[in-house]
Specification:
Length: 201
């Protein structure tokens, strides 16, 4: 009997989106460096060769998984900031949404951007730098939204937009750490409401 040859390349039933979702969850849960390519191949139901053929190296796969996160579970920040509502209401909603999303059942706790690569070896410096830049862009987005509120008369003209944006982002990143430690949604909501008490009168 002639042995049946195994077809090369990715499986015929390959579902790229489902595979990316699996990679996203694994990176989100374990972080960049603690996630091996073997772990990813198993979670994505791909052979190592198919994984490399479809997504390239680990860094490229991580970038694709991060994009998947930002388009899905992590999209609430941009969506809320874009709403045509008063700036204070926007940030109140953002804190409430964060408390909900960071503790949602069926997914890792916390934010993938905030926790995935805070500590990396020199070999992963590019990943750490990219994530730091992404977190910095959140501060820029917050500042732009606050300045829009100032221009609309929703905040005092002398509001320090940069400092307020940095404060709000710092609290949100703290919520991620707390969520990873198992702090409840109700407690995170309380922290967000306390933070909003610092809102300029």
């Amino acid at each position: 009997m002639t042995a049946e040859k195994r077809p090369r390349g990715r499986p015929r039933c390959f579902d790229r989106e489902a595979a990316l979702d699996a990679a996203m969850v694994l990176f989100w849960d374990r972080g960049y460096e603690a996630t091996s390519m073997d772990d990813l191949a198993g979670a994505m139901c791909l052979s190592p060769s198919s994984l490399y053929a479809c997504f390239g190296n680990k860094e490229k796969l991580y970038e694709a998984a991060l994009d998947r996160y930002l388009e899905g579970p992590g999209s609430y920040t941009a969506r809320i900031l874009a709403e045509d509502i008063p700036v204070r209401t926007a940030f109140e909603r953002l804190f409430e949404a964060a408390a909900h999303e960071l503790t949602r059942e069926g997914q890792p706790a916390g934010c993938m951007v905030a926790t995935a690569a805070t500590h990396c070896s020199p070999a992963a410096t590019s990943v750490r730098t990219a994530l730091a830049e992404m977190r910095a862009s959140h501060v820029d987005q917050f500042e732009a939204r606050i300045r829009k509120g100032i221009a609309a008369g929703e905040l005092p003209a002398n509001t320090d937009a940069a400092a307020l944006a940095r404060f709000l982002e710092t609290v949100l990143q703290g919520l991620t750490v707390q969520a990873r430690d198992g702090v409840s949604r109700a407690e995170l909501q309380m922290v967000g409401r306390l933070a909003m008490r610092s809102w300029p009168a």
